[in-house]
Specification:
Length: 678
């Protein structure tokens, strides 16, 4: 009988290199040891079952007993606790013919199947190793199906491995595309779904159209999403009819939505998921009705149910995002923020939906005048998944940049943000759910005298609202943006239709009534003929509707234009109440009455070496931006006279002889605020 000291089984050298060399040299009298080790390397386990051929030879006495073979392998250092050591396993699998390895793997799969045991992760190893076996493919496909709605990234990898094992590429296409889209890989989802939709009699067609519609929506082309559902037709829509409503109404096709979905119809099944989808469609149709206030609770309920289901379905938009958008349109940014936070925590819509939910949180914070919170949420959106923002979300992000720059009065940043937004506009289109960012860009275009670059988008938005019957819930904020733009452009002709739209909507919409009143106040302020009490009432009403910055801006502009000191003090106090950030860093002086900074040192210099108090530095930055006394006052809510006093004191303190000298000295003073580090 062969012993462990025979040639090719030298056990005295335990190094990995020696083990690999030894494994490669197993032949002749050691062939049975080699067969046992190869079987164990493939995945068979001791004490058995073993490959049928090896077991037959052991039982027939053609080779040594299993105990003897194991002992020899262990003494040779090739086997430890029933496991082939790594270098030896690698060598055996490398040297053995691929056909032999695959034959052993198939035999092992048969053992698993006959014993009723799942392959588990071993199926993934087999597929990645190149084994084509429909039983392996079926198990991987089943595992992917289970992961699809809860972990789409894992599902996508499992489907790919199932293809390697021989799964039907067309049969799994819709599910693979769903996994890719839910994980945020729109390009992969598009390639898969395009191949499916052009095939003859494509399987799982409804799911495929759901994915296609979701991808088009994320690309900012909601009309193409609606086209996909129209192509599918009512007969094949089934429970996806509610999702078709999202797309069709979003691009202005109310008649098409009504033809495919009945708000009174019960859910397709008594499940959370079906109820959430039906509620989404019903809420959107309700938002177009004469009683739109009922739409928001319906959509919030739909969002809650989808949160509870834990599903990541392909959706043109999530019920949480639609509910948050609707809340913002209704003057309830706090509610919008709460809905988005709950949906984000629950993972509603999967990784693909996270950036949009964070960006809507940012919009809520911006509207509430919480600039830092808005920027934080925008940063969260950028790192929510490992893919770049999709065009729809990139457009929303660009509009947020513009809005924040406009609210902070940073003209240089506003111009740069506007250029980025212009690029983002080219990659998206106007739809019902993007009217807020379009409205922000309308105002900024007027501010920068760039209205011509956005006029055709404004026309499209007006046509969209007209096709839907100009629903107040959706149209009021856009008309308010157009009113502000017309005021900036000093264009009565452009102001009239939007002011009239607000007046009509005021009969049924409280927000419209507030905005119509604010619009009248703005017109009177710019005309120089206004009642301070009316302006203050309009400003505080804007604040109550979740628009504190807009209210403070109205009061601040009015304060700069009043002749009476008591009215100026009253309006400035109102502006500061609504926009407290404007008073931060100030010197605490009474509005309109400058006084020396309390932090000045004995030599008249601020402790940081700039020579300016905090309020003076704020004024200095605005002077360097080229703002007038009135514009400075409107920006930081002080009177023009107070701004003039600040500038005169800075000129004396810095020893400036004229305006150009003052500008140079202010630049040096502000540079001293942040000296270069050694």
């Amino acid at each position: 009988m062969a012993t462990v000291n025979q040639p090719g089984l030298n056990h005295l050298d335990p190094s990995p290199h020696a083990a690999e060399l030894m494994a490669r040299q197993l032949k002749g009298e050691n062939a049975a040891v080699r067969e046992l080790l190869l079987a164990l390397s493939v995945g068979f386990m001791l004490p058995g079952p073993l490959p049928a051929d090896l077991q037959r030879r052991i039982d027939g006495g053609e080779v040594e007993s299993l105990h003897a073979l194991v002992a020899r392998a262990e003494q040779a250092g090739l086997l430890l606790d029933g496991t082939v050591i790594g270098p030896a396993r690698h060598a055996l699998l490398t040297v053995a013919p691929t056909a032999k390895v695959h034959a052993l793997q198939r035999e092992l799969v048969t053992c698993y199947v006959e014993d009723g045991q799942p392959l588990g992760d071993f199926a993934r190893e087999l597929a990645r190793g190149g084994l084509a076996d429909l039983r392996v493919a079926a198990e991987l496909e089943h595992a992917a199906d289970k992961a699809l709605e809860h972990d789409p990234g894992l599902a996508y990898r499992l489907y790919d491995e199932a293809l390697l094992a021989g799964a039907d590429e067309t049969a799994t296409a819709a599910r693979r595309a769903q996994a890719a889209a839910a994980d945020g890989d729109l390009d992969a989802a598009t390639r898969i779904i395009d191949t499916l939709l052009v095939s003859a009699d494509p399987p799982d067609i409804r799911r495929g159209v759901d994915v296609a519609a979701a991808v088009w929506a994320q690309r900012g082309m909601l009309a193409r999403s609606a086209d996909a559902y129209s192509w599918l037709g009512a007969a094949r829509l089934g429970p996806s009819a509610a999702l078709a409503v999202v797309s069709l109404v979003g691009c202005g096709n109310r008649a098409g939505a009504d033809a495919l979905f009945s708000a009174d119809a019960p859910p397709a099944s008594p499940t959370l998921l079906a109820a959430a989808m039906a509620g989404t469609g019903k809420g959107i149709l309700q938002s177009l009705s004469g009683d739109p206030e009922q739409a928001l609770p319906i959509l919030i309920h739909a969002s809650d149910m989808l949160n509870s289901s834990g599903s990541a379905l392909p959706l043109p938009d999530t019920p949480a995002a639609i509910a948050a958008t609707m809340a913002l349109h209704s003057g309830e940014p706090q509610l919008a923020e709460a809905v988005c936070k709950a949906a984000t925590a629950a993972g509603q819509g999967g990784n693909a939906a996270k950036p949009r939910l964070f960006l809507l949180q940012a919009w809520s914070a911006m509207q509430l005048d919480r600039v830092d919170d808005a920027r934080l949420a925008m940063n969260e959106a950028s790192k929510a998944n490992h893919w770049p923002l999709v065009p729809r979300d990139q457009f929303l992000r660009a509009a947020l940049d513009v809005g924040l720059a406009r609210r902070t009065g940073d003209i240089a940043e506003l111009v740069m943000a506007w250029e980025r937004a212009r690029d983002a506009m080219l990659h998206t289109s106007v739809d019902l759910y993007s009217l807020l960012p379009w409205g922000e860009l309308v105002i900024t275009a007027a501010r920068l005298r760039e209205t011509r670059r956005i006029s055709h988008y404004v026309d499209e938005a007006n046509r969209l609202l007209s096709r839907l019957g100009d629903p107040p819930l959706w149209g009021v904020p856009f008309h308010w943006a157009a009113v502000q733009a017309a005021l900036l452009s000093e264009s009565p002709a452009e102001l009239a239709p939007h002011a009239a739209a607000l007046a009509r909507a005021a009969r049924t919409s409280h927000l419209a009534a507030v905005l119509a009143s604010a619009g009248k106040a703005w017109v009177s302020v710019l005309a120089g003929s206004f009642q301070p009490a009316d302006v203050e009432a309009a400003a505080r009403a804007l604040n109550r509707m979740g628009m504190p910055w807009e209210g403070a801006r109205l009061a601040g502009h009015a304060a700069a234009r009043t002749e009476e000191r008591k009215d100026m003090v009253r309006l400035l106090s109102c502006a500061r109440d609504l926009h407290p950030q404007s008073a931060q860093g100030g010197n605490g002086s009474t509005p309109g009455e400058p006084r020396a900074a309390a932090t000045d040192s004995g030599n008249g210099l601020h402790p940081d070496g700039s020579g300016l108090s905090e309020r003076e530095k704020e004024v200095a930055r605005l002077v360097l931006e080229g703002k007038t006394y009135r514009e400075i006052g409107e920006t930081i809510y002080i009177s023009p006279r107070t701004a003039e006093h600040h500038i005169a004191r800075m000129r004396r303190r810095l020893g400036a002889e004229n305006r150009s000298d003052l500008l140079a000295r202010l630049r040096l003073a502000l540079a001293a605020e942040n000296p270069p580090q050694e």
